[in-house]
């Protein structure tokens, strides 16, 4: 499946949530999300700009996702092929990955609200006390939703949370 997304850093969700509700959006899930990232010792996936992620949505479900290299021709959107399956037992899958030669190299937790409206998925994420609005959908749906929510394009990023967290950890005083 083709994933097209962008993130906007915001100071607060206070203005976003009423706008989502006015658009008829519904919050489908809210809670703690844990993500675990795996690669081989020789960093085979990283060298190809690919990612293997195991994820737990607290009280909801678990998934295993493979994301392929992002397309190079889009500076405004993060576009990549994504393959995801639901799994019943995250600990069993973690052991399977280890037996196959993968090792966990990073993990993080975030608070997430998953909203759905029109042709877009909107995530309200809090990671390391930073707030992001992530929009996933077609390019047109993303543009429309960003405008409807009054998001500032100068606060937009195509970086993934792994890169954002690495950048934060490199800052002095962290």
List keywords for this structure.
alpha+beta, 174 residues, 9 strands, Hypothetical Protein Pfu-838710-001, 5 helices, eight-stranded antiparallel β-barrel
Describe the structure.
The chain has a single domain, classed as Hypothetical Protein Pfu-838710-001 (Beta Barrel), CATH 2.40.320.10. The mean pLDDT is 94. With 174 residues, the chain is an alpha+beta fold. It has five helices and nine strands, in the order E-H-E-H-E-E-E-H-E-E-E-H-E-H. Strands 1-5-4-3-2-6-7-8 form an eight-stranded antiparallel beta barrel. The protein starts with a strand and ends with a helix. Residues 1-167 form the CYTH domain. It comes from Candidatus Sungiibacteriota bacterium. This is Class IV adenylate cyclase.
Layout: helices, strands, pairs:
Elements: E1 2-10, H1 16-22, E2 26-39, H2 44-47, E3 51-57, E4 61-67, E5 78-87, H3 90-99, E6 103-117, E7 120-127, E8 130-136, H4 139-148, E9 156-157, H5 161-170
Antiparallel strand pairs: 1-5, 1-8, 1-9, 2-3, 2-6, 3-4, 4-5, 6-7, 7-8
Domain CYTH: 1-167
InterPro entries: Adenylyl_cyclase_CyaB, CYTH-like_dom_sf, CYTH_domain
Organism: Candidatus Sungiibacteriota bacterium
């Amino acid at each position: 499946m083709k994933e097209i997304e962008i993130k906007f850093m915001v100071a607060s969700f206070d203005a976003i949530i009423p706008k989502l509700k006015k658009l008829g959006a519904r919050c489908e899930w809210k809670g703690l999300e844990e993500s675990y990232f795996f690669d081989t010792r020789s960093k085979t996936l990283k060298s190809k700009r690919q990612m293997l992620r195991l994820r737990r949505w607290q009280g909801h479900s678990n998934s295993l996702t493979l994301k392929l290299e992002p397309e190079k021709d889009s500076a405004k959107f993060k576009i990549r092929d994504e393959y995801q399956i639901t799994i019943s037992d995250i600990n069993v899958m973690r052991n399977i990955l280890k037996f196959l030669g993968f090792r966990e190299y990073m993990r993080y937790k975030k608070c997430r609200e998953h909203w759905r409206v029109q042709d877009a998925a909107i995530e309200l994420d809090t990671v390391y006390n930073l707030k992001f609005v992530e929009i996933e959908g077609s390019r047109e749906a993303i543009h429309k939703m960003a405008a409807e929510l009054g998001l500032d394009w100068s606060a937009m990023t195509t970086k993934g949370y792994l890169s954002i967290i690495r950048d934060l950890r490199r800052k002095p005083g962290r």
